[in-house]
Amino acid sequence: MQHLLRQFTKTMGHEADLYRALLAELVRERHALAASDLAGIQAVVATKKELLNEIDGTEKKRLSLQRRLAAMLDCPVDELSFGRLLDGVGGALQGQLQTIRCAMEEVVPRVRHLQQHNRLLVKHGLKLVSNSLDFFSRGPSACCVYRASGRLHYGTHGGRLLRNSI
What we know:
Layout: H1 2-34, H2 38-73, H3 82-88, H4 91-138, E1 144-146, E2 152-154, E3 160-161
């Protein structure tokens, strides 16, 4: 059981390190997005992809270990939490698990927040590009008038002409 707990602790520590690395990449991505640095964004996306693949592999290993631990402790896998593990172990492993638990509780919400923030930056940038393309693709039409409100209307009839001649 102790060997399995050590493996679980090592796996969780590795996963926490991967999430910290992902957090650093998300910060780099935010700066690249703000600077419209296409090369920087592409580099960050490639690194994020590698990290996410590694996190996925580590997560699968963690789930396998968690199932084995749950079977040994005779409890459902859904109910096996850090708290339950901390109650069942002592010594150095308990301290390591507590440290990993605190790290994961700190890093994961920050990763979620930064991911949402970066998603909004991309969405906003795309909206600006779309609006600019719409504006410039309209171009001046043959009939360009304004109404009493002062708003320009392209391709409509009526209102005041913007040309010097009628």
